[in-house]
């Protein structure tokens, strides 16, 4: 089941100058042009500079050892460390999380969650879209018992009061800023949002593919083949959800349309919460998101991520169930032709889509290429073509130097 695949392109908003300014979820008409690679490293605003300090500060966690950067490491495109299926958090830094930490690079382009006129859910932050903007997203980890695990806002703000940069925080928000914990927390998350919005580190647009689109690099023959297969609706059909061409205004492709899809991933036994056979992570309809719990037709759908830097952000998917990028593409094209390679066997055959309750497995996308197959059919891509697509995907890594 697919929830739409219509390209949506937003440009990056400029520095956040005041607490009252909304962060994320903006319309294109409200936004200035995207600063492209080579435009220079502009100095951060005072608000974003505080956000940078907050982002790196592990003292703001209950354990004293976890910061935003712990799960969103710059050297891994602001995703979790390679091989880490879910991060460990909590007061003792020993409580496993529920979902794999995604890259937050290019997150500032994400629109607020909404339903399109045709009912397609789109946008929002986190894998289930439950946060409305960057600032809202920044709130959750500080108080999540499996992440930074502060018991309440007051204890978090108390930690802020003992940092080396609290004077700068007071200088920006007022000498009495910490007297009202809720107000101080608003300032913290606004600063983090400003940092993600302003810092070129979060949106450099300097991959080989960006250079190619600008006429400054050439793709190899294999990368060209991979690009064709990626875009071909009868082959990879990847561009249906991950648009790869510039916008009509020349904006760089973000390789996501911000929609949601139910892929029917195999259940990952290594995730702690999956030890309970009655537990299921249902994405849009829970358990972390509560407002759409009654929308059973949305259960199992997770946000389509950007593919920028995808070669650097293993393991993959919300449950970290795939270790390599090639495995991911192979799963896409052989999920339905060779289900026994991915799912357990049970009486009567292969137990497909085993990470969803039986009554919700009909939500899985089985209609679009490359999922429109049956066991014994030929996969949409050959092994060599899978290699070609992977080669193309590697051109999306930031930091290309000819």
Give the tags:
mainly alpha, disordered N terminus, Cytochrome Bc1 Complex, Chain D, domain 2, 10 helices, 2 domains, two-stranded antiparallel ribbon, two-stranded antiparallel sheet, 402 residues, 24% helix
Structural account:
Strand 3 (114-115) and strand 4 form a beta hairpin. The protein has 402 residues and is mainly alpha-helical. It has ten helices and eight strands. Mean pLDDT is 91; it is low at 3-40. It has helices spanning 46-56, 68-71, 134-143, 153-160, 166-173, 181-198, 208-213, 221-231, 325-334, 383-393; strands at 88-89, 95-96, 114-115, 121-122, 260-261, 302-303, 345-346, 349-350. The chain folds into two domains: 38-202, Cytochrome Bc1 Complex, Chain D, domain 2 (Orthogonal Bundle); 208-396, Cytochrome c-like domain (Cytochrome Bc1 Complex, Chain D, domain 2, Orthogonal Bundle), CATH 1.10.760. It is globular and about 70 Å long.
Secondary-structure blueprint of this entry?
Blueprint (H helix, E strand, L loop, with lengths): L45 H11 L11 H4 L16 E2 L5 E2 L17 E2 L5 E2 L11 H10 L9 H8 L5 H8 L7 H18 L9 H6 L7 H11 L28 E2 L40 E2 L21 H10 L10 E2 L2 E2 L32 H11 L9
Antiparallel strand pairs: 1-2, 3-4, 5-6, 7-8
Helix pairs in contact: 1-6, 3-6, 4-6, 8-10, 9-10
